[in-house]
Amino acid sequence: METEQFEALMMYVLVGGLIVFMFFIIWDLAKKSKAGRLGTAILFLGLGLCLFAFLAKPVITYIIEMARGIHG
Predict the structure, then answer these.
(1) How would residue 72 be classed by pLDDT, with cut points 50, 70 and 90?
(2) For the chain, what are the domain ranges?
(3) 24 vs 1, which has greater pLDDT?
């Protein structure tokens, strides 16, 4: 396995672990503050939006590349 391949794989594995940990932190924050269902949903929406963007970027990039006929 080349260094670049290892780095790309570890980025997604480790950042994925960080995302799971951050969702746990948001859930724990909602639980300790007794936010209720709506408050918990708002916390996940507000604080989890950047995590969603990180996950959506490769999918959107793939769709755009396929639409333009770029194979890489």
Answers:
(1) low
(2) 3-68
(3) 24
Task: Print the SS3 string covering the chain.
Answer: CCHHHHHHHHHHHHHHHHHHHHHHHHHHHHHHCCCHHHHHHHHHHHHHHHHHHHHHHHHHHHHHHHHHCCCC
Tens-digit pLDDT profile for residues 26-67: 999 999 999 999 999 999 998 888 778 878 888 999 899 999
Q: Would you say how long the chain is, in residues?
A: 72
Residue type for 46, please?
A: G
- pLDDT at position 31, please? 94
61 in Cβ contact with 53 (< 8 Å): no
Contact residues for 54 (Cβ-Cβ < 8 A; gap 6+): 15, 19
Backbone angles phi and psi of 13, in degrees to 5: -70, -50
